[in-house]
Design a protein that fits this description.
six-stranded parallel sheet, globular, alpha/beta, 126 residues, 50% strand
């Protein structure tokens, strides 16, 4: 019984290659995109964009691995990884970033150590 509950909690959503979606996506689980999303994406978990994956819209998530293309702004609260085949056009806000040789990035990158902790401190001072 315990295993089933863990499996449900760690849900992984996939948009396969050749699939195109127009509209915003909001999920509480992990997501992998190998197709195309024209719209904004939001998740409290991890987003993986495969080599054939394309997102035209803003991204908000906890962790993100990009091997494909993103045209839009990104807010990643923990770790953003741009793989060698990544092509990102837009501004980035993240806690940590890894950029592999060959990755392309055009925009402004703002790094904030412990972004969640700073937001909580600001709220408690108010």
């Amino acid at each position: 019984m315990g295993k089933n509950m863990e499996t449900e909690a760690s849900c992984i959503n996939i948009i396969g290659a050749g699939t195109e979606i127009k509209g915003d996506i909001k999920t509480s689980g992990d997501m992998r995109i190998d197709g195309k999303l024209t719209g904004n994406f939001s998740s409290g978990q991890k987003l993986v964009i495969g080599q054939s994956g394309i997102i035209e819209g803003d991204i908000k998530c906890k962790d993100c691995d990009i091997s494909g293309k993103v045209i839009g702004n990104m807010h990643v609260t923990e770790l953003l990884t741009l793989k060698a085949t990544a092509d990102v056009m837009g501004d980035i806000s993240t806690n940590k970033i890894v950029i592999e040789p060959g990755a392309q990035f055009s925009g402004v990158c703002k790094m904030h150590q412990n972004m969640q902790g700073k937001q909580e401190q600001t709220k408690s001072k108010d």
